[in-house]
Amino acid sequence: MFRVRYLRVTSLLAVIAIFAFSSIISYQRYTEASKILDVTLKTGAWASSELEGELLRFLNTLDLFRIGERTPNDLMLRFDLLWSRIQVLRVGEETEHLRELPGAQEMLNKLDQLMKEVDPVVLNLQVADIQTAEQLGERYRTFAPAVRRFNVESFSGRTKLLELRSTHDRQHIFFLGLLISGAVLVLMLLRENARSRAQALHDPMTGLPNRKFFHDQLKIAEARSLRAGSRMAIYLIDLDDFKTINDSYGHSAGDRLLIEVARRLKDCVRQQDTVARLGGDEFAVIQEAVDHVDVSARLARRICKQIMLPIELNNNRVYPSASIGVSLFPNDSEKAEQVLINADTAMYLAKKDDGISYRFFEPEMNTAIVRRKRLSNDLSIAIKDNQLALFYQPIVNLNTGKIEATEALLRWHHEDYGYISPLEVVSIAEQFGLANQLNCWVLEQACRQNQRWIEQQLPSLSVSVNISPTMYTQYDLVGAVKKALAVSGMDANLLVLEVTEDTTMRDIETSPDILKKLRALDISLALDDFGTGYSSLSHLKRLPVQKLKIDKSFVQDLNNIPTDLRFIRTILSLAQSLELQVVAEGIEAEKNLKDLCLEGCHYGQGYLLSRPVQPNEMAELLKQQGADKLLFSCGNLTNIENTG
Ligand code: C2E
Ligand code: MG
Ligand code: MG
After folding, report:
1. Are residues 291 and 338 in the same domain?
2. Best residue among 430, 431, 466 to mutate for probing ligand 1, ranked by most atoms within 8 Å of CB
3. Does 331 lie in the same domain as 284?
4. 386 and 499 co-located in one domain
5. Whose CA is nearest to atom 8 of ligand 1?
6. What is the CATH number of the domain that holds 426?
7. In whole angstroms, what is the distance from residue 412 CA to residue 248 CA?
8. Are residues 350 and 390 in the same domain?
9. What is the best residue among 558, 583, 585 to mutate for testing ligand 1's pocket, by most ligand atoms within 8 Å of CB?
10. 141 and 207 belong to one structural domain
11. In total, how many domains does the chain have?
12. Has residue 99 been placed in a domain?
């Protein structure tokens, strides 16, 4: 941007310099031309006076010849000189304007004719040939008046006018040139000014109005709405994971995405609406004359739909997503600028919803924002000061009834807000750039704890750790795992990373790669909350996971919708063919447990077996298990009813 401006100013200065230079040169040339013209005019005038002088001298020599005071040679010399004067005037550029005088050309031709005629006579003239000399004198004398007139006119009258006209013409041309150059320069300055103005108000990459222009437009739209008594809606649109796209595919791919999003947004709105790029990956829309809130909801949905269309970036198919906040004027505030702030608040909360989403502003949101900001501040301190805790929930082998694994689950008790759900903690961490610290902390704590139990001679368990989405895409997860294993001293094959379907789908092209790298560390991978996402069978086949965790919603639905057992059955046979272990989450009812046992589900986890517990309680459970006090065993089940 700065470079382009710099280039413009430089080229403008260059044009001015060229203009000044050319003016100087043209002025010099004009002066030179005037001088030449002057000389030319003088030369002409001088030639005409010389003609008259030479004619008089020739006539005088003839008179002197007659009285014997001049020789034929003297006469010949004068004759030649006269002829050469005539020739000078008949031809030659500098005397051209003299020939244009009335009768001049004719007079010169006649004189020339006479010269040719008398040439042999003058050549052969004898000393005493007075009569011939007299005859010659008479013939030449007849030319004297015409030559005189010619001489006089060459100095004055029309010639002077010619001189003046010529000077004026040239002056006019010079001033006209000056005027045109000046006008061109002024036009260029005006154009440059208009361009700079347009540049100052538009984003050069997408061509959309920029933040400044957007605020101007907002004021105008506000005034229009007030006059018309109509509603307007303001949308703030922020792309999700734009940093990841820049990091993974390069900045030019990121730029292409922004240009494409700008194009899609423009396609969504009407001519009278405004689409602007406020900066980075943030866009805004002003929708005027909104009859009904539904109209805004429709536009929000259309924007969502358009943005999430796939785009090819460096031969990769990327599915962009965005979070949208909408606020209405004057419903949400009587000041348009406040409505913009409201839209920002709504967008901020839409960010924490998964995937593409939009939210309309509600007054309670401000309280939610205050809470989230406070939590984000305190979370960063809590991670550093070890104020967070991990609870562990047993994962039981349904055949043997033994705890074979635990899942580490995050717990945070905030001094003012009380218990904060791990889902909210993770979402805050993701939004405020704390994901890496949080996940590293959990990984390290879980591995250390698991190693402690082993050191306490308790049965060796594997530990499952939930990893949040951005860890796979934005941070060095492989490095974090290596570090956690190193500091804890735990065997890699005891660690299971839980990845959600949503995470693997976010970047469908690269997720198998990162998962393979993790697999190469000899750790296991589990696909969490299976069934809630969009995994296709082919996608599942490509993912190097060893375990599937059936989401608790399916297990719990077994109570209400008996046919859901068919779904579980299908997953189990799918898992069998892909050689995957299956863990059923959220087992709360004994009946669910029986059904799952009958279908041959390998592992179970749920409140019925055990709630997530503190590390010392887990140690207790393991000790009891050692004393053959099992949480549960399929073999112990009585009155099994097949509900399938
Ligand atoms: P998840 O990974 O699917 O974890 C299982 C969730 O189900 C846990 O909720 C657990 O307490 C709950 N649960 C277990 N058995 C039952 C049951 O019988 N009935 C019901 N209704 N719920 C049961 P929790 O601890 O609230 O965690 C919620 C989610 O938060 C987890 O779902 C996981 O996605 C995420 N999460 C928890 N801890 C962490 C963490 O340390 N890091 C990350 N990135 N995410 C975590
Ligand atoms: Mg989990
Ligand atoms: Mg789960």
Report:
1. yes
2. 466
3. yes
4. yes
5. 409
6. 3.20.20.450
7. 33
8. no
9. 585
10. no
11. 3
12. yes
Looking at the domain assignment, is residue 127 inside a domain?
Answer: yes
Domain boundary among 361, 387, 407: 361
DSSP state of 613: B
Q: How far, in Å, from the CA of 458 to the mean position of ligand 3?
A: 26
User: Mapping DSSP to helix (H, G, I), strand (E, B) and coil, where does residue 432 land?
Assistant: coil
Place of tokens 């001298």: 57
Determine the Cα–Cα distance for residues 131 and 451; give it in Å rounded to an integer.
Answer: 151
Q: Which residue has the tokens 């009278």?
A: 272
Determine the distance separating the centroid of ligand 1 and the alpha carbon of 423, expressed in angstroms.
8
What is the whole-number distance in angstroms between the Cα of residue 532 and the centre of ligand 1?
A: 14
Q: How far apart are CA 218 and CA 212, in angstroms?
A: 10
Of the three residues 333, 361, 389, the one that is the final residue of a domain is 361
If you count them, how many residues does the chain have? 644
CA 617–ligand 3 middle distance (angstroms): 22
Q: Which residue has the tokens 């730029």?
A: 255
pLDDT digits (tens, 9 = 90+) for 572-598: 998 999 899 999 999 999 888 988 998
At 28, which CATH number?
1.20.120
Q: How far is CA 353 from the centre of its chain?
A: 27
Residues with CB under 5 Å of ion ligand 2 are: 466, 498, 528
- Residue 567's CB is within 10 A of a number of other CB atoms, namely 15
As given in the structure block, the two tokens for residue 361 are 């502003």
Which residues contact ligand 1 via a Cβ below 6 A? 393, 408-410, 421-423, 426, 442, 466-468, 498, 528-529, 552, 585-588, 605-607, 612
Average pLDDT rounded to a whole number, residues 450-478: 93
Identify which ligand lies nearest to the alpha carbon of 426: 1
Domain co-membership, 252 together with 399: no
Specify the pLDDT at position 360: 95
User: Is 187 within a domain?
Assistant: no
* Domain match, 531 and 432 both: yes
Query: What is the extent of the structural domain holding 108?
Result: 2-161
DSSP per-residue string spanning 202-270: B-TTT--B-HHHHHHHHHHHHHHHHHHT--EEEEEEEETTHHHHHHHH-HHHHHHHHHHHHHHHHHHS-
Whether 375 and 357 map to the same domain: the answer is: no
Q: What is the pLDDT of residues 606-620, one digit of tens each?
A: 999 999 999 999 999
Rounded to an integer, what distance in angstroms lies between the CA atom of residue 85 and that of residue 306?
A: 93
Per-residue pLDDT tens digits for 550-578: 999 888 877 676 667 788 888 899 899 98
